Amino acid sequence: MFDDNSEQKKALRSIAKGRKRTNLLRFWEQNLIAWFVQRMPAWVTSNGLTAIGFIGNVIVAVGFVLAAYVHPFWLLINIIGFMISWFGDSLDGRLAYFRNIPRKWFGFCLDVIVDWLGIVLIGLGFCIYSAGFWKVLGFVFIVLYGGEMIVSQLRYKVSDEYSIDSGLLGPTEVRIILSAIFSIEVFVHGLLNYLGLAACIILFLSFVVETRKLLLLADARDIRERAEKVEQHSSQS
User: Fold this and answer.
1) What percent of the chain has pLDDT over 70?
2) Residues pairing with 166 in the sheet
3) pLDDT for position 107
4) Cβ distance 159 to 217 under 8 Å?
């Protein structure tokens, strides 16, 4: 599927700029993204791809609503929604880098805002689908995912290195896991609530671990900058 040539390698180099990936599927994912950006029509823009990614999240939210009021079978369209979300969200910034027209800070801000709105919609969709106490999980999911996003942006500020992954898990792996969960829910109704609870527990533990790493990183930078100031002051004396 992938061309082993200079163009493919050039595309891989361009889409890797400014972003460190550690997720399990990074090799296959980056090759697929490189393949797509080389063949994207000229009229497709990065902002357009961001909009497509958001539409994917809207489809997921609508899938929850239809599953709640029509039939659980509608949860399966969430898989399509996640595929569309991955396509737009993964290619928007990478296409700009490939075309050498990145809008680093504008694109970064737009991407974070749109991602957050998409997560809110998905969480609200879950609240509508679930009953009773389980509705709280949708709210908890939004809060914890938002916390992960904040930690990610703070890590970028402290380290000047942007990463969207948490260890071996990135947005792509999360989308695949959620798609599998939704598929199971169609046939085992109610299981989604317990799996959602498990997901919230994992998110909470990840938030605690990543927050600790962030604070240690920030403390190390403070110590380094203080030492540099002392050294600079000594050299000027």
Assistant:
1) 89
2) 169
3) 81
4) yes
Q: Which of 40, 33, 41 has the alpha carbon at shortest distance from 11?
A: 33
Q: So what's the pLDDT on residue 75? A: 93
Residue identified by tokens 């002051």 is 233
3-state SS of the chain? CCCCCHHHHHHHHHHCCCCCCCCCCHHHHHHHHHHHHHHCCCCCCHHHHHHHHHHHHHHHHHHHHHHHHCCHHHHHHHHHHHHHHHHHHHHHHHHHHHCCCCCHHHHHHHHHHHHHHHHHHHHHHHHHHCCHHHHHHHHHHHHHHHHHHHHHHHHHHHHCCCCCCECCECHHHHHHHHHHHHHHHHHCCCHHHHHHHHHHHHHHHHHHHHHHHHHHHHHHHHHHHHHHHHHHHHHHC
User: pLDDT by residue (tens digit) across 193-233?
Assistant: 888 888 889 889 888 988 999 999 999 999 998 988 888 87
